[in-house]
Amino acid sequence: MSARSATPTPIRWWKSARLRVTAGITFITAAVFAAMVVFTGQLLILSAERVTDTRLNRETAEFSTFMQAGVLPSFEAEEPTVEQLMRAYLAQQYPSAELLLVGTAEESGTQFTLSRYAPGEDQLFPPEVRSRLQRIGLAPGDDSGEIDDSVNWRKTTVDSPAGPASLVVAVNDLGTAAETRRVAESLFWASAGGMIISALLAWWISGRMIVPVRRIREAAEKISAADLSRRVPADGPDEIVSLADTVNEMLERVEDAYRTQREFLDDAGHELRTPLTVVQGNLDLMPEDAEGRAATTRVMQDELSRMTRIVEDLLTLARADRPDFLVWGPAEVSELILDIEAKVDVLADRDWNVLPYAEGVAQLDTHRITQALMQFCSNAVRFTRPGDRIEIGCRILEPGEPTVTESMTEGRPPAVDEKEIRRRRLLWWVRDRGAGIPPGEEESIFERFHTARGQLRDGRGGTGLGLAIVSTIARAHGGRAFAFNARGGGASFCIVIPFISAENVGGDPSSSGAAVAGDDPGAP
Q1: What kind and span of H or E run contains 354?
Q2: pTM of the model
Q3: Which of 121, 225, 263, 299 has its CA 20 to 30 A from that of 108?
Q4: Burial class (CB in 10 A: 0-12, 13-18, 19+), 132
Q5: How far is the first Cα of the chain from the last one, in angstroms, to the nearest whole number?
């Protein structure tokens, strides 16, 4: 991991999230306000038209009722004329400024016009408009209409007892239209002010919302390879807290990976430096005589072989994350144990006791399992003397059956996750009668370059990678590797993996979901 080499992209205000949020809220607010103004304006117009229509209907209805009765309220004539009835009706009306009435006696053509103002003073009904309304009263035809987009009129004809008569009722709605425009303008300016206030509030609120994000960005900018311990603040809305938690979890994984990588490189460099120093020193001090040269050459060959083993182990660990690390296939468990017995017989002069308890065909990588068990056996040889007993065994554990019991261990057995107990599994173990594991190092011995089990019986040093490779193989199979001091002396090294029946798997268990390499059943 290297330090940052690129400068963070500067935040441009015209492309900032704050401006986009503000613009989005302002646009939505403007659309809502515009729709509200248009809708309210249409409601006002419809309401004005409805009021005008109601007034026209009311005036024509009152005229029809009066004329059809044919009776004067205070007139001496028992049979009044149409003109008298018309005059009596208009005499009792008191029109408003926007109302004009034109009554017409159909037979004589006599007309009576009633309005609040005289013709020369009436701005709503000037002489030309009155003349048109009077002509409408004399001419047959339509019973309603509009003049100059401002005067609405309605005509009704009544057959009174004195004869036919008509009335034209006209209403000028300029005042109502002006009032509607004033209300619409007031709504427009109120909406504009509301939109401006909404934009300012959106700018302020979005700024408050982005503050936690800005803190996360500023904290992330301060994090480098030299200091991965920093964490971003987790405060604010739930979404921001969730983002901060996710970033912090990612930083923890990066820090762990970086620390592991750094420790791995430091340890590898230290382990490789020693044989290189030995080889270089022997080359610099190469004796002149043939016997000395042969001895020096043997030392250098031994150190080069040690470096080769370290490199091979490092390559094995490096391939652990690759999908082709395991080659799955069906394997008879008992035959696998017997094959290992044939290999360990020539490994060292020990009393090998092989216990092929398990029988069944399971899906696993026979090469990797054999590699792990041979590493256990090699490890047991290094911590025992010739003739000491080393036990190799395998069992199939049913769901609910404990992996390790107290009767098998010296002290408390290793902890086990409940998920492991709930499934069927395979357990391999190699037990020696050596010095055992130092207290507290049952887990750390599976770490890379850890060799803390005391002095080796055969005097040879190890690379500290063997048990780490075993642990990697076990995890790749969806299981784990663990060790404990056995009751009666010595130590037991174990691998436990899920038992995947070959009959239920048609192909690669890792792709069919039968085994999940990342499903850690729990550390011992």
Answers
A1: strand 351-356
A2: 0.49
A3: 121
A4: middle
A5: 31
